[in-house]
Amino acid sequence: MARDDEVYMSALQGKSIPILTLDNKWHQLFTQTEMTPEIEQLADELNSLVEKDGKLRSQTKDIKKLKKKLLGEIVPLRDKANKAGNSAAIEKEISERTRLINECNDKLDSHQDELLDLSKQIYDIDYKLMVETMKVCYERLHDNTSDIKSLDEWITRARIELKKNVIRLQEAEMENYNLYSYMHQIFGPEVVEIFDMKYDPDRRHPIRRPLAGAEDEYVE
Q: How far apart are CA 50 and CA 103, in angstroms?
């Protein structure tokens, strides 16, 4: 027995396992990940066994109804035979019903044995399907966890780099703003216009400030 099987078997001792293919939540699992060929094969086998089990139970129920009906008919026939002085025709009817009841008993015994065998087969296949399902889901969880870790690390690095670049942007904008202001104050607008320095930092490169409580969002 594989180590995974040993772990699962130990965890499942004394616990009831639902028939997975009849559980809608089990089917919903595979809206998140794909079924493997092994899972599809086991699911088909389990469905076939469950269908056979259902038919046998339905047949068993019908046989029990027939047996009850036959038993109910024997008592009146016996009374009728007694009153008629053990009529051969009535005795034949009683004998025929007795034969049919015995056939019902034989079929019920046979069905009971088959149902017990089916119950074991269903449990075994259901267990294998559960193990394969857990393997696939845990593998997907592991892969997703690895991706989440990598993406989280990338986002952290990107945030740090973004903050650095925002600081550089603000410093460059402040420098431009100061240069323009000092030049405008020192040389005056007429001189600045001569050198084609029609630069308005408030219009072209406004200084951006972080929004309160949101370091990655800025307003002008």
A: 26
pLDDT mean over 105-119: 94
How many whole angstroms separate alpha carbon 106 and alpha carbon 103? 5
Distance CA 43, CA 20 (A): 8
3-state secondary structure of 172: helix
Does the predicted model carry a pTM greater than 0.90?
A: no
Cα–Cα nearest to 46, from 76, 13, 22, 14 = 22
Q: Which amino acid is at 82?
A: N
64-94 confidence digits (pLDDT tens): 999 999 998 888 888 777 776 667 788 888 8
For the chain, how many residues are written? 220
Geometric angle at alpha carbon 36, from 17 and 145, rounded to 5°: 85
Residues 6 or more apart whose Cβ sits within 8 Å of residue 43: 20, 21, 35, 129
C-alpha dist (Å) from residue 177 to 113, 172, 182, 220: 93, 9, 9, 14
Beta bridge partners of 210: 218
Structure tokens at 185: 């104050």
Which has the closest alpha carbon to 132: 15, 50, 48, 44?
44
